[in-house]
Amino acid sequence: MSRLREEMRVIPIGAWVTAIVLYVALVVLSWRVFIPHDEDFSSWPRWGLTLFTMVMPMFLAVYVLLVGYVAGDARRRGMRQVMWTLLAVFIPNAIGIILYFILREPLLVACRSCGTQVRQGFAFCSKCGTALAHACPACRSAVQPGWSHCTKCGARLEAGN
Ligand SMILES: [Zn+2]
Ligand SMILES: [Zn+2]
What is the C-alpha to C-alpha distance for residues 161 and 144, in angstroms, rounded to an integer? Predict the structure, then answer.
C-alpha cells in the first residue's frame, strides 16, 4: 500500500481539491436540481437514486485525479507537463491518459554527486559532469557493461567496461 500512497502524492493538491469540490457539487446538484426537475427519476427507487448520485460524480472525480496524476507524473519524469495535461483533459474517453501511460518516459534518477534529476541512461550528470554510467572512451555516450562495441560510434570497448 505504501507504493500506492507514494503515487497518490504525485497528484497535485489542486487536483484533489477540484475532485472533491466537483463531487460534492454534483451530488448536491443531483438532489436539488436534476432529480426534482426530471420526470424520469420519479419512477426510480430511492436506493437506485442514491447509488446513481454517488457513483456518477465519482467517475468524474476519478477522472480529475487521473489528469492530476498525469500532470504531476509528467513533471517528475521531465516530460512536457502542459502538453500532456491538456491531452489528458481534452482527448475524449480518457485516450489522452491512456496514451500518456503508454508513452511516458522512465523516472529520472538523482546524480549521486549533486542530486540533480537526470534522465536514465545519461553517461554524465548534466549539471556537474559526474559519470553516471559506463561511457564510451571515444564518444563519451553511455554504454552497457558487457558490450564489445559502442552503439553510437562503433568504437571497440575494453572487455569488462
Ligand atoms: Zn551532478
Ligand atoms: Zn562511442
Answer: 8
Residue type, 89: V
Number of the ligand closest to the Cα of 115: 1
Q: How far is the CA of 99 from the centre of ligand 2 (A)?
A: 33
Considering every ligand atom shown, identify the ligand nearest to the alpha carbon of residue 110 and give its number. Answer: 1
| pLDDT tens figures, 19-64 | 999 999 999 999 999 888 888 888 889 899 999 999 999 999 999 9
Q: How far is the CA of 113 from the centre of ligand 2 (A)?
A: 24
**Residue ranges covered by each domain of the chain:** 2-106, 108-161
Residues whose CB falls within 8 Å of the CB of residue 93, separated by 6 or more in sequence, listed in order: none
pTM equals 0.77
